[in-house]
Structure prediction request, 180 residues.
Amino acid sequence: RTAKWRWPTDRTGKPDAVPHQSPEKTGTTRLLTRFLRLLLPAFLFASSLGLYVLGAFTFGDERSAIVTRIGNLAARTAAAVNKISDHHQASQTESVLSLMLADPAVACGFIADQSGKVIAAAPARVGCAGSQHAAQVDIKLQNPVGATLCVKYNLTELEDRGKLFRIFTLIALLGSLIVA
Prediction:
């Protein structure tokens, strides 16, 4: 007579889940711990590095685009100021300068003569006093002779977009981590 094979039992008589292995060493648990130890850090590192490089290239291009946009705006404004006749110089110059403020990156602008005295400013009366700016563009004017147009601008719109990009990047990273 042959004996029937049965699952091994513990001391209480209940069958073990897997013969001769503790519950921590089952195949599924080993696979899960291997995944968590090896693949999860590799995934986080690779995706974080990729998102950082993507952000660096994106915002590097946007920074140069803002600088180009402000340079073009300042050059067009300088060309318009140069065409204003001396008779209407004071009133029309401030009007032309105020048009630059339509760009969100422009903090202020002013025209100074050779001695540094402000001839016209935008915003009017305040000029650039106390304005927060990251950089400036200076352009020599032909009319009035020896004057300089100075446009000060900031990159707050880029910083705001950067904050949103970091938030969405973190959400995407966490979402892909959860899916994985």
Q: What stands out?
A: Strands lie at 106-112, 118-122, 135-140, 148-153. Helices lie at 27-82, 89-100, 156-179. The chain has a mean pLDDT of 80. The first helix runs from residue 27 to 82.
